[in-house]
Amino acid sequence: MLSVCIPHYNYENPSLLNTLKAQCEALNLVFEILIIDDASDINKKKYLTSYEEKPFRVIYLGENIGRSAIRNLLAKQATFNLLLFLDADGKIENDHFIKTYLNNFNEDIVSGGRAYANMKTDAAHFLHYNYGFNIESKSQSFFHSNNFIIKKSAFERLKFDEKIKNYGYEDVVFGLEAKNMGFKMLTIENPVIHQDIKSNKAFLDDVDQALDNLLKIIGIKKDLQIVDFVGISKKYKMLEKFGLTKLLSIRNRKITNSLRNSMVLNPKKNSNILLSIYKLYKYHQLKNLKLV
């Protein structure tokens, strides 16, 4: 018995819902597809009215409660003990996506990963796509909250930390706490295609928010030593150890803005060069935020 749990916010994606329903029915599962809308714009959630009858359940929230709280609410509202969490902007290309999960659910938490379609994109969206296709989709050793399956009883012991309200690294915290509590985790080849490719500016805005959130998490979760686990903060700490972050102080704000403008306005460079600029930008932002 399976509850598919989908946090929904400002992204229309009926194809995902239809695919999930078809695959579950083909397997003769007892299942539900539970969608909680986190106070989306009215025009972005109208289509959900077509999915208010079984096997679907839609709950509309009057105010946005954030990424951690909505996942906890989904688990609380779920009918069945097996929970499959999927982000609303995903696309399933594997015709046996559900079956693959059920056949490989041999650990406490199994995640399927995230992928990006091999496609051309315009200059305005090149940065997010380039990072996603070349970096994010290849980092499957890390837990991603966009696509994982877990028993409800295990989730209720873990939960997402609702003190973490904003975007960025909340899934890292969940994964680390799961390991610390002794849960066994497995990543399999069962990815969901990430479709919500953001503009260069919007993507960098998310990066800024994520780095700010990272510093807050480091303060809240001192016991996790998250600074030594996240790649960018671990490398920054190493630079700090050798006194090299002092170089970032030289005209830092001006250089940060210059790097940002370069990626927003003129992103279509060699992929390696662009990603190097992106990494340098993050180091400068951490210096601005005073990570020590």
Arrangement of strands in the largest sheet: 3-2-1-4-8-6-9
CATH-assigned homologous superfamily of the largest domain? Spore Coat Polysaccharide Biosynthesis Protein SpsA, Chain A
Question: H/E series, N to C?
Answer: EHEHEHEEHEEHEHHEEHHHH
Main sheet properties: 7 strands, mixed
- Principal-axis shape equals globular
From the N-terminal CA to the C-terminal CA, the straight-line distance is 47 Å
Unreliable segments (pLDDT under 50, ≥5 consecutive)? none
Pfam family, one: Glycos_transf_2
InterPro entries: Glyco_trans_2-like, Glycosyltransf_2, Nucleotide-diphossugar_trans
Protein name: Glycosyltransferase 2-like domain-containing protein
Domain Glycosyltransferase 2-like: 3-157
Descriptive notes:
- The protein is α/β, with parallel strands linked by helices and 292 residues long.
- The chain has two domains: 2-121 and 139-197, Spore Coat Polysaccharide Biosynthesis Protein SpsA, Chain A (Alpha-Beta Complex), CATH 3.90.550.10; 204-288, no CATH class.
- Helices cover 43% and strands 14% of the residues.
- It has eleven helices and ten strands.
- The strands form two sheets. It has a seven-stranded mixed β-sheet with strand order 3-2-1-4-8-6-9, with helices on both faces. The chain has a three-stranded mixed β-sheet with strand order 5-10-7, with no helix packed on it.
- Helix 10 (252-265) packs antiparallel against helix 11.
- The longest helix has 21 residues, at 200-220.
- This is Glycosyltransferase 2-like domain-containing protein.
- Pfam families: Glycos_transf_2.
- Residues 3-157 form the Glycosyltransferase 2-like domain.
- InterPro entries: Glyco_trans_2-like, Glycosyltransf_2, Nucleotide-diphossugar_trans.
- It comes from Pedobacter psychrophilus.
